[in-house]
Amino acid sequence: MSTNRITLRRPDDWHLHLRDGAMLEGVIGETSEHFARAIIMPNLVPPVVKTADAIAYRDRINAVIPQGHDFTPLMTLYLTEGTNPDDVEEGYKSGVITALKLYPAGATTNSASGVRDFDKAMPVLERMASLGIPLCVHGEVTDPEIDIFDREAVFIDRVLDPLRKRLPELRVIMEHITTEDGVEYVKANDRNLGATITTHHLIINRNAILVGGIHPHFYCLPVAKREKHRLALRKAATSGDVRFFLGTDSAPHTDDRKESACGCAGIFTANNTVQLLAHVFEEEGALDKLEGFASVNGPQFYGLPLNADKITLEKRSEAATFPAKIDTGDGPVTVFDPGFPIYWHYA
């Protein structure tokens, strides 16, 4: 490794939206070209709630992975108040599912079927704790009285911490943390807790959405926060702390759905994340920590083997180029623009 050339294990993405149908076919190659595995989100319409649903969705994904790409989708189930613990156990033990996903009802895209009463979800959560099945958590409350910028901190106090005290053996991933509060909560707990951090939350704060007009392609949920929170995320991601790892939350929406009177939440970063991360880690003087964040900490938390394949990035004098949009059968999807040149290229 040098300051201009780094080699690391092929990365994984521990939080990814692929959608379905024409959108799935249009975006899958943007992930499979760069990542070996990804945790696939289950918030389709209708959601992936049973093992049979996960098998069918996995088959649809595998059918459209471009030839020559070596990629494994890691399937999740959408946790509901009626989720059957026996079905979850069967899916996990058979290797079909890797985790379950908790969406508080109404928290984000296609989350209407999420959990409202956690007591009703306890039977499956208890079974998960006993089997070591990870729970991926969208950590925001949906109480309309709570300011959108405070939803993550309130979720930790009201929901997550009580749940973890009730089920300390439950393995939990706080997905796409966006606040200093989230960082500090993870650091204060050394057992059964990890967190993913997205590429875009390392780069933008809430000014990117609102200054100089409304910029819908920077709108996501959880929404980007104040600058102090972005800096806390960067410090955590580049620290070498094994509890933090990459989950892009790359979430494609067609431009007409983003650029509308009620625009969808989601930022598409699948095809430029690796090079953007090299830029961020270089800025923080932490290129030696990039492999841990992108390729090691995640599989270790999930109890999966590390990827054997390697990739090499090198810094050049000319800027890398990325497409402004990708075309899908559903329509164009805008690619995240960091707003500055990136000089890291695949070697």
Structure commentary:
- This protein is α/β, with parallel strands linked by helices.
- It is 33% helix and 17% strand.
- The strands form three sheets. Strands 2-3-4-5-6-7-8-9 form an eight-stranded parallel β-sheet. Strands 1-10-13 form a three-stranded antiparallel β-sheet, with helices on one face. A two-stranded antiparallel sheet has the order 11-12.
- Helix 3 (85-93) packs parallel to helix 4 (118-131).
Concise structural overview:
This is Dihydroorotase. The protein is α/β, with parallel strands linked by helices and 347 residues long. Helix content is 33%, strand content 17%.
Element order, helices and strands? EEHEHEHEHEHEHEHHEHHHEEEE
User: What does the average pLDDT come to?
Assistant: 96
Amount of helix = 25-40%
Radius of gyration, in angstroms, nearest whole number: 19 Å
For this entry, give a set of tags.
11 helices; three-stranded antiparallel beta sheet; alpha/beta; 347 residues; eight-stranded parallel beta sheet; Dihydroorotase; single chain
Secondary structure topology:
Layout: E1 5-9, E2 13-16, H1 21-32, E3 37-40, H2 51-64, E4 72-78, H3 85-93, E5 97-102, H4 118-131, E6 135-138, H5 151-166, E7 172-175, H6 180-187, E8 193-197, H7 207-210, H8 227-237, E9 244-246, H9 255-258, H10 273-283, H11 290-302, E10 310-315, E11 325-328, E12 331-334, E13 344-346
Parallel strand pairs: 2-3, 3-4, 4-5, 5-6, 6-7, 7-8, 8-9
Antiparallel strand pairs: 1-10, 10-13, 11-12
